[in-house]
Amino acid sequence: MQQITAVNVNNIWSGTSSFAPLLGAFLADAYWGKFKTVAYGCIATFLGMVVMTLTAGVRDLQPPGCSAVELQLGQCVGPSHGQLAVLIIAFILLALGGGGVRPCNLPFGIDQFDRTTEAGRKGTSNFFNWYYTTNTAAVMVALTLVVYIQDSISWTIGFAVPAGLIFLATVMFFMGNKRYVYVPPEGSIFSGIIQVIVAAFKKRGKKLPPPAEQELVLYNPPLRSTIVTKLPLTQEFSFLNKAASVSDVSGELNDVDGSLAKPWSLSSVQRVEEVKCLIRVIPIWFSGIMCFVAIGQQWTIAVLQSLTMDRHIGPHFEIPPASLGVFSLLAIVLFLPIYDRLLVPILRRITGHETGITLLQRMGVGIFISAFSMVIAGIIEFKRRSMAESLGSYTVPMSALWLVPQLVLVGVSEAFNAVGQIEFFNHQFPDQLRSLATSLFWCSQAGAGYLSTIVVTAVHRSTGKHGRPNWLDNNINGGRVDYFYYLLAVMGGINLIYFLIVAHFYHYKGSPTDIHPDVHPRDEEEDDNDSRKKTKEMELSSSEI
Q: How far apart are CA 357 and CA 178, in angstroms?
């Protein structure tokens, strides 16, 4: 398989697998709840790893052996249909398991905090940082220790160890079931979104009273759940407010309890504001895709670069090319605790903000570092290629450790942007839709995988004409990967400008549209308190009605 084809296959697989959490988020928020979805995901993952272990340990589930000579001549016999089916079943179980665990384990953990208190809010912020730190540390163990066991000891043991760890984690998860806080599912969010849009469209010709009077006439019943935060009425996307206007009391509401009778004609203020939350975050979400494109390309192309470089550390140890990504992971594991314990308290004293800087500012810093890392990568690649050209050799006496700075920058970028994204989506989505919020983060990576494929394919096809070198030539020394890095840096710079624009006009959930919380963090807290008071008054007035 050619190098470019391998890169694209990896991007497509990464993108496809990252969409699986959408299914898990839908089932969690609409039907099962987070606890059951995580439980089913853990069981599916364990079964998938058991099947993977069997494919490595049971001879009848493996294709015939193949010598190095047969492999070189292309004469190896592939797996039978039955053997391939067993392997596919394992992958399906693992995908379903990941689709259940990925979108729900973090939101389920956040449900355990009381975010109406200062301690609860600080706890959630710490939880996001430490969650990503431990998750990254687990990936490091998988890429080093587990890979070593698989390559040097036994593939059967290499699969059995993760299977055993998953079983242990599942047992520990069930042990706390009597202590957990559970947020019940609220029904399908997708149908709820469509219902709001349809109801607003049906009443598009209806005139609403002035904003100050709308709270008195719009359908705004008290919430059934005491865990979910009630959202105040806002005037952003005010055309959607028409969905909550009552046109026919006897037809749209039940006479007995005043509940909805026709959800496709009338929606509550709470559901309208939930839809607004989703609309607000979409422009911010797009910016994360380009950030992950840079991260993904660093991981894949750095491996190709390292194949032409000296990977030795000392006389007896050589770094495997695929293990270079560990430097990015190590940067995340080391930087996040420093950020959480050292930088946040310092920034908190300067800005007065609970998290030191706002979530949008944190994401913006990550996008900037991501684009800057591409510039550094381009400079290092220019040095490597120039040395190969001057020596006339495929390999160069240049240490692969020269790639470490760009990989470390990518890790720091991820620590800022990725963790910022997760926390931002979980804060800005409605409480009962946090599973969908986390799945949106994974969809950023999915979108990045597909966008990377488009960019790589476009560059590969458009360059290399009129006697000029192809930037992404199969022989990396004959290409111009440095130009490709600079292109990604320019795209990252454009993405940063786009992000700054949409972030400037963004308004946080529950805040008035005429105040931007990134500029006035202390005013944001006062506005939130006013919103809570107003929400309580609205609940009382609704209950009296």
A: 36
CA atoms within 13 A on the CB side of 513: 12
Torsion of Cα atoms, 95 then 97 then 101 then 102, to 10°: -10
Q: Which fold has domain 277-510?
A: Growth Hormone; Chain: A; (1.20.1250)
Domain boundaries, the chain: 1-187, 189-267, 277-510
Distance CA 163, CA 143 (A): 16
Superfamily (CATH) of domain 1-187: MFS general substrate transporter like domains (1.20.1250.20)
Residues in CB range of 22: below 8 A, 6 or more apart: 99, 103, 436, 439, 442, 443
Q: Work out the number of other CB atoms within 10 angstroms of the CB of residue 173.
A: 17
Total-model pTM? 0.76
Q: What averages of pLDDT result for each successive group of 10 residues across the chain (545 residues)?
A: 50 64 83 91 94 89 72 66 84 86 87 80 82 86 83 88 94 91 76 88 90 86 74 89 84 74 86 90 92 84 88 84 84 90 90 88 94 94 92 88 93 91 86 77 82 87 81 85 94 96 87 41 42 39 35
